[in-house]
């Protein structure tokens, strides 16, 4: 099957699922229900696409298909920030209650952390795997610090922190959503000139350098863009650990190509299909008794184990 035909199938499937989610089962009062469903669908499209594209680019840079940007500790930093706001200022403070302020501080802190991590480490050690190792150490440190503060706060406030530890598409602030869309569009326009270089970089560092790619400089710029995307997506709906891993590998298996101009679009569409389909299951089958992130992490975790066992057999 041709690549354009595969993309067409994904586009049609996405449109059908979006239409079902938007219009099916509305008993009346369309003016109240439809705008809320539309904002939820928009949040799913934005966050799903960003996480999928960021994961594909990240796996191309690291030349490893079982890694995701979560390993550098951004998810753990987000949970630490939410815990710290409530631990230090209380659940009724502006840092916890005001979504705009919380979003701005969360995104700003994660982007600054990622920028400092990349900038300082790349000046001395131009090795992406050393960067990943330091990121894992920071992620573990942030997780331990969050756990320490969570056992000290009031149990009622701990429930608020716990709610923010899981992604939710049910209460998306539309003002934040539009700001996030503008920021993401600007960064995608910046990424556009590097898409052809990603095809070369997927061959490996040595081959890319021999073919004239300024490898370290391109990797540094792409990592900062990835950090911005993951920060925005996480601050918008919460951490979704295994989504990127799941959709990126499904995309590789479905598309069977190295061309990132197709892979990036296809990964975004696969992510939209997975999230919209999953949200329909949560709404219609489980009647909101569970969250979409729980289902994704369960399936993604199982798929992660499958990939590890598969790679182990390959060795």
Automatic annotation (TrEMBL):
Subcellular localization: Cell membrane
Cross-referenced CDD domains: TM_ABC_iron-siderophores_like
Gene Ontology BP annotations: siderophore-iron import into cell
Listed name of the protein: Iron chelate uptake ABC transporter family permease subunit
Domain of life: Bacteria
Topology in membrane: Multi-pass membrane protein
UniProt KW keywords: Cell membrane, Ion transport, Iron, Iron transport, Membrane, Transmembrane, Transmembrane helix, Transport
Alphabetical list of InterPro entries matching this protein: ABC_BtuC-like (IPR037294), ABC_transptr_permease_BtuC (IPR000522)
GO cellular component, one term: plasma membrane
Pfam family, one: FecCD
Protein family (similarity comment): Belongs to the binding-protein-dependent transport system permease family. FecCD subfamily.
Keyword Lipid biosynthesis: no
GO MF annotation list: transmembrane transporter activity
Transmembrane domains' residue ranges: 7-26, 38-58, 78-97, 103-121, 128-153, 176-195, 222-248, 260-278, 290-309
């Amino acid at each position: 099957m041709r690549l354009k035909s595969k993309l067409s199938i994904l586009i049609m499937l996405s449109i059908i699922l979006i239409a079902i989610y938007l219009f099916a089962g509305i008993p009346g009062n369309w003016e109240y229900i439809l705008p809320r469903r539309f904002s939820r669908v928009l949040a799913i499209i934005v966050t799903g696409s960003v996480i999928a594209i960021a994961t594909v680019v990240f796996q191309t840079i690291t030349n490893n298909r079982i890694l995701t940007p979560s390993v550098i500790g951004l998810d753990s930093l987000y949970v630490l920030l939410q815990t710290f706001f409530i631990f230090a200022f209380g659940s009724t403070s502006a840092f916890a209650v005001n979504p705009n302020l919380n979003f701005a501080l969360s995104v700003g802190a994660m982007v600054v952390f990622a920028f400092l991590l990349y900038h300082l480490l790349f000046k001395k050690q131009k090795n992406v795997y050393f960067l990943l190792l330091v990121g894992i150490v920071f992620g573990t440190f942030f997780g331990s610090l969050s756990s320490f503060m969570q056992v000290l706060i009031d149990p009622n406030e701990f429930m608020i922190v716990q709610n923010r530890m899981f992604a939710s598409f049910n209460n998306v602030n539309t003002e934040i959503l539009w700001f996030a869309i503008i920021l993401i569009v600007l960064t995608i326009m910046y990424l556009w000139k590097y898409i052809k270089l990603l095809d070369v970089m997927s061959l490996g560092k040595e081959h890319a350098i021999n073919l004239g790619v300024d490898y370290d400089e391109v990797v540094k710029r792409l990592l900062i863009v990835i950090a911005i995307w993951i920060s925005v997506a996480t601050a918008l709906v919460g951490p979704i650990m295994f989504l990127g891993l799941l959709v990126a590998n499904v995309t590789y298996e479905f598309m069977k190509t190295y061309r990132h101009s197709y892979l990036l679009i296809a990964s975004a569409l696969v992510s939209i299909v997975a999230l919209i389909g999953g949200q329909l299951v949560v709404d219609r089958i489980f009647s909101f008794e569970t969250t979409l992130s729980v289902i994704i992490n369960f399936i993604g975790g199982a798929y992660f184990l499958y990939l590890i066992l598969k790679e182990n057999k390959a060795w």
